[in-house]
Design a protein that fits this description.
- With about 190 residues, the chain is mainly alpha-helical.
- Helices cover about 50% and strands about 5% of the residues.
- It has nine helices and two strands.
- A hairpin with a 5-residue loop joins strand 1 and strand 2.
- Helix 2 packs across helix 9.
- About 30% of the residues are buried.
Length: about 190
């Protein structure tokens, strides 16, 4: 079953399950166009932390991630040093993975060196041209790709610029969560 009906009578993508936080995220954030360097840096960072884990784990830890990473302000995170890395490694409220923490700090430095709005323009320049307004939604989860030519190209460009934890699958998840693609399934109320 790819679409389920929630307690409010609305049909949703089945990955939501019964979790109220997942339901809120699906209904209010996932697939909604997101702009702004800070907001996209946060999404990119959280998607990187999610690699190998369940998204609900990251979603539940997001408030603490925001506190620990100074609201994902690229200028502030770029200034983090080894003391901050150790502080983050000791913080049970986030995912304690040294490589991902160090990558987030390094990525922040890259964003901090960009012109205002440059990260937003860069990421959105890879949005598929057929993603907006066509009303074509996947019929089932089997029809939702893990990687696309656009996510592969964006991943390659980000890596060329020095970004880390931005593989094609992670980047496609970013594209979904930031509304660059709309993978709400046919039959889901958000696809209507």
């Amino acid at each position: 079953m790819d679409v389920i009906t929630g307690p409010d009578g609305r049909a949703r993508c089945a990955w939501v399950g019964e979790d109220p936080e997942y339901r809120r995220y699906h209904d209010q954030e996932w697939g909604v166009a997101l702009h702004g360097d800070r907001a996209l840096f946060e999404k990119m960072s959280l998607e990187g932390f999610q690699a190998g884990l369940s998204w609900i784990t990251i979603l539940r830890k997001r408030p603490r991630f925001r506190e620990a990473f100074a609201g994902f302000d690229p200028l502030r995170v770029a200034a983090f040093g080894q003391t901050d890395v150790e502080r983050l490694m000791a913080d049970a409220g986030i995912v304690r993975n040294r490589s991902k923490i160090e990558a987030t700090i390094a990525n922040a430095a890259l964003v901090a060196d960009m012109a205002d709005g440059e990260l937003d323009r860069l990421i959105w320049s890879f949005a598929p041209s057929d993603s907006a307004g066509l009303g074509v939604h996947p019929a089932s989860m089997e029809d939702v790709p893990a990687v696309t030519p656009e996510s592969t190209a964006l991943s390659k460009e980000l890596r060329r610029r020095g970004f880390r934890f931005v593989g094609p699958t992670t980047v496609y998840a970013l594209m979904q969560s930031a509304g660059m693609v709309d993978d709400h399934l046919a039959g889901c109320w958000r696809a209507e």
